[in-house]
């Protein structure tokens, strides 16, 4: 998505060769019009699939997932991050390491909002090693729901997350693919 790439070049900053700061677009501030365009693009990419729900992980995935759900006319479910893992029989839970925070968090989705009748489109902000995505994919599998695929705003393709998920036979669509951050420069694929 050219508009997104232009905005990344203008507004992102490079923290180190692995991490891009995207606070101005995704992780702290949100541009509603740009986010709406992203939602339209994901809806277009998955137009042939009968999606019943959009799903994401709180919190930075929520705006773009909402924009996508609005265009598709379906509900949005966001996995919640929990501080304690008191076994909850009414929820699917997975433990995921956090790429940026260096801690482990537990994500959960209530059984009430995900079932074998659903075909879900999983939207997220950034994919790096894919741990967060794998956690939610496990939850989707355990619920019996069908995973239509993933829609990722920024794929850092020099890290292995999206590749290993595609190798599992899961469709992954990314709006911007970053091949490298070496030398303090953003290089798109
Ligand atoms: P993963 O689980 O794929 O390794 O990391 C995914 C999550 O970590 C994303 O949802 C995002 O919140 C955070 N993350 C990973 N890499 C970056 C990065 O380069 N910049 C920012 N801002 N967040 C990142």
Automatic annotation (TrEMBL):
UniProt: 5-phospho-alpha-D-ribose 1-diphosphate binding residues: 128-132
GO cellular component, one term: cytoplasm
EC main group: transferase
Pathway of action: Purine metabolism; XMP biosynthesis via salvage pathway; XMP from xanthine: step 1/1
GO molecular function: xanthine phosphoribosyltransferase activity
Residues the entry annotates as binding xanthine: 20, 27, 156
Any one GO biological process: XMP salvage
Subunit structure: Homodimer.
Family the UniProt entry places it in: Belongs to the purine/pyrimidine phosphoribosyltransferase family. Xpt subfamily.
Annotated protein name in UniProt: Xanthine phosphoribosyltransferase
Taxonomic source organism: Paenibacillus albus
Record lineage: Bacteria, Bacillati, Bacillota, Bacilli, Bacillales
Encoding gene (name): xpt
């Amino acid at each position: 998505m050219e508009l997104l790439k232009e905005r990344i070049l203008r507004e992102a900053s490079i923290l180190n060769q692995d991490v891009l700061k995207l606070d101005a677009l995704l992780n702290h501030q949100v541009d509603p019009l740009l986010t709406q365009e992203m939602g339209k693009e994901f809806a277009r990419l998955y137009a042939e699939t009968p999606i019943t729900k959009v799903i994401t992980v709180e919190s930075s995935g929520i705006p773009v997932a909402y924009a996508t759900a609005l265009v598709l006319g379906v509900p949005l479910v966001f996995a919640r991050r929990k501080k304690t893992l008191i076994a909850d029989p009414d929820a699917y839970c997975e433990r995921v390491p956090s790429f940026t925070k260096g801690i482990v968090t537990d994500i959960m989705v209530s059984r009430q909002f995900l079932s074998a009748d659903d075909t879900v489109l999983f939207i997220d902000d950034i994919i790096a090693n894919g741990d967060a995505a794998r956690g939610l994919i496990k939850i989707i599998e355990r619920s019996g729901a069908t995973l239509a695929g993933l829609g990722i705003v920024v794929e850092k393709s020099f890290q292995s997350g999206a590749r290993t998920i595609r190798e599992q036979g899961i469709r992954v669509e990314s709006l911007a693919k970053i091949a490298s951050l070496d030398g303090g420069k953003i290089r798109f694929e």
